[in-house]
Amino acid sequence: MRDVKPLPGTVAFRLGTLGAIVGDRLARKIAGYGVKPKHAGLMAALEAGVAASQQDLAARMGVAPSLVVALADHLVDLGAIERRRDPADRRRQVLTLTDQGRELLAKCAAAAQEVDEELVAPLTPRQRAALHDALDVLSENEGLPA
Predict the structure, then answer these.
(1) Local structure of residue 17 (DSSP, 8 states)
(2) Sequence-separated (6 or more) residues with CB below 8 Å from residue 123
(3) What is the pLDDT of residues 25-47, one digit of tens each?
(4) How many CB atoms lie within 10 A of CB 71?
(5) C-beta neighbour count of 86 within 10 angstroms
(6) By the 8 A CB rule, do 114 and 22 touch?
(7) Beta strands across the sheet bearing 51-53
(8) What is the DSSP letter of 64?
(9) Are 94 and 52 in contact (CB under 8 A)?
(10) 16, 43, 45, 69: which one has the fewest Cβ atoms less than 10 Å from its Cβ?
């Protein structure tokens, strides 16, 4: 067996741990808007694609369709999205972001930017740029939007 780094020294463990910490920070910042990061993710996916079926969104987000239904139910109650039957296929539910949803998504984006600034505060401008570049490459490699 080749030399194995201790678990805390692995990229996977470090990114996972940082992701959990940063995700919790973002969740606290947007909780006052009545949403969690997964709600914001669903709205961002809708913003990127205009309208989508619940099945399409589940596939795009890499989550179970039942989770998309639960997230959508909450966002419909908030007035952030609308759910309509697809006229071409009555079995499909199509979701669209409302104007109120766009405003909510903008607030979530602003909160995320605040968390970004807190997170990268100890980095130099050069380190920040390198981090963004590396995250772009990793995100693209995983099929995520940059």
Answers:
(1) H
(2) 131
(3) 999 999 999 999 999 999 998 99
(4) 25
(5) 12
(6) no
(7) 51-53, 89-97, 81-86
(8) -
(9) yes
(10) 16
